[in-house]
């Protein structure tokens, strides 16, 4: 496992940092430090196009599809410098990190030509249609159905927690296409245009005041027959491949964001005297150790050669970072004290650390609850007997 970077890599790091910091000090300085995913949506879409214009949008993709064929080290470096520069999160993260790699790996040549150039250029924003009201972390329990009518799939059902669906152009959806099928069998992976009468999107207001998530209803919604990825009934395999991409190089950028949050907690503790409390100092030290361990774990995970499969490191990473960041949010509020519970701005306009606390309450839920992650670790990672299904 490679834990350092070559001199050439460090030159690339400087190139990334210079460009990103220049953008955040220049034309796009108005979006620097924006933490809410729904903040300044049109400017964020302009930022996607700016990244694409300078070939920074999807640097790990092949050159022919808008990328740079960047090495793994270079992708890690860009993700880290992106977060270090205070650049807001990507509104097309789902397209760049999930939909795109899935199409590259499992899609046909025609599908690549149809979708990849527009994703890379920031012209097509994707969202994800996996979770349902009764199938959150348990993807195999989805009930949304699709049937083939002529040259179109017709979809009926409901998805929930569809991040940024209200500003997206396409959604990939796991549907059940075989009547009477259960579990992972009979699922199909479809790509659907959102702007159509059969799709209704309703926002969900979060505890921190943001409205990133949505409920998405499908009523005879349609997509072309050739919009499925893989074969009919092959949706589970495609979805598992996609979830492996979710544990990709962006995890190192995510950790740089964690680094920024921890540094802000340390600065606040020094400023208000909380750092004089030995228990606070101990918790800060524990957070620092945990962050470093996560970095080494992520590098180990990324060193695997086959990134289309979820290995043991990927199975443990989600529960590791989610639990760590939930504790970090609690540490932030303990450092701030009662003053952290009062906002100086409009309703639900919180500073970074109170917003960290509020959002981190969801970290151990979305993307697979901690309990589901423990089941995955036990059953798929350690090969232990499956948990009884349907028990009271």
Automatic annotation (TrEMBL):
Lineage of producing organism: Bacteria, Pseudomonadati, Pseudomonadota, Alphaproteobacteria, Sphingomonadales
SUPFAM superfamilies: Acyl-CoA dehydrogenase C-terminal domain-like, Acyl-CoA dehydrogenase NM domain-like
InterPro entries: Acyl-CoA_Oxase/DH_mid-dom, Acyl-CoA_Oxase/DH_mid-dom_sf, AcylCo_DH-like_C, AcylCo_DH/oxidase_C, AcylCoA_DH/ox_N, AcylCoA_DH/ox_N_sf, AcylCoA_DH/oxidase_NM_dom_sf, Mycobact_Acyl-CoA_DH
Domain Acyl-CoA dehydrogenase/oxidase N-terminal per the UniProt entry, residue ranges: 9-122
Record keyword Magnesium present: no
Residues annotated as domain Acyl-CoA oxidase/dehydrogenase middle: 127-218
CC cofactor: FAD
Keyword check for Oxidoreductase: yes
Transmembrane segments: none
Lineage top rank: taxon: Bacteria
UniProt name for this protein: Acyl-CoA dehydrogenase FadE
Residue span, Acyl-CoA dehydrogenase/oxidase C-terminal domain: 233-381
Family: Belongs to the acyl-CoA dehydrogenase family.
Keywords: FAD, Flavoprotein, Oxidoreductase
């Amino acid at each position: 496992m490679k834990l350092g970077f070559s001199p050439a890599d460090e030159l690339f790091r400087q190139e990334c940092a210079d460009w990103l910091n220049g953008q955040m000090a220049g034309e796009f300085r108005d979006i620097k430090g924006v933490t809410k995913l729904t903040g300044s949506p049109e400017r964020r879409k302009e930022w996607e196009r700016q990244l694409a214009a300078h070939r920074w949008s999807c640097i790990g993709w092949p050159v022919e599809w808008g990328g740079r064929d960047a090495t793994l080290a270079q992708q890690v470096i860009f993700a880290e410098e992106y977060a270090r520069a205070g650049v807001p999160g990507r509104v097309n993260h789902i397209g760049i990190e999930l939909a795109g790699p899935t199409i590259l790996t499992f899609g046909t040549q025609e599908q690549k030509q149809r979708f990849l150039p527009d994703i890379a250029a920031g012209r097509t924003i994707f969202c994800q249609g996996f979770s349902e009201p009764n199938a959150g972390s348990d993807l195999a329990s989805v009930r949304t159905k699709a049937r083939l009518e002529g040259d179109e799939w017709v979809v009926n059902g409901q998805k929930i927690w569809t991040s940024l669906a209200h500003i997206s152009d396409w959604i990939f959806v796991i549907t059940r296409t075989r009547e009477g099928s259960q579990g992972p069998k009979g699922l199909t992976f479809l790509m659907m245009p959102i702007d159509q009468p059969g799709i209704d999107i309703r926002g969900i207001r979060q505890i921190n005041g943001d409205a990133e998530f949505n409920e998405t209803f499908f009523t005879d919604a349609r997509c072309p027959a050739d919009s499925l990825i893989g074969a009919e009934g092959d949706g589970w395999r495609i979805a598992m491949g996609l979830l492996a991409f979710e544990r990709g190089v962006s995890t190192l950028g995510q950790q740089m964001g964690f680094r920024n949050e921890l540094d802000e907690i340390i600065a606040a503790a020094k400023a208000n005297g909380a750092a004089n409390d030995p228990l606070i100092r101990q918790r800060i030290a524990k957070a620092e150790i945990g962050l470093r361990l996560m970095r080494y774990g992520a590098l180990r995970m990324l060193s695997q050669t086959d990134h289309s499969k979820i290995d043991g490191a990927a199975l443990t990473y989600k529960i590791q970072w989610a639990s760590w960041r939930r504790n970090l949010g609690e540490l932030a509020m303990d450092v701030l004290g009662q003053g952290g519970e009062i906002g100086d701005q409009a309703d639900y306009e919180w500073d970074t650390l109170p917003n960290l606390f509020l959002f981190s309450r969801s970290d151990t839920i979305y993307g697979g609850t901690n309990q589901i992650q423990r089941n995955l670790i036990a059953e798929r990672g350690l090969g232990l007997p499956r948990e009884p299904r349907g028990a009271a």
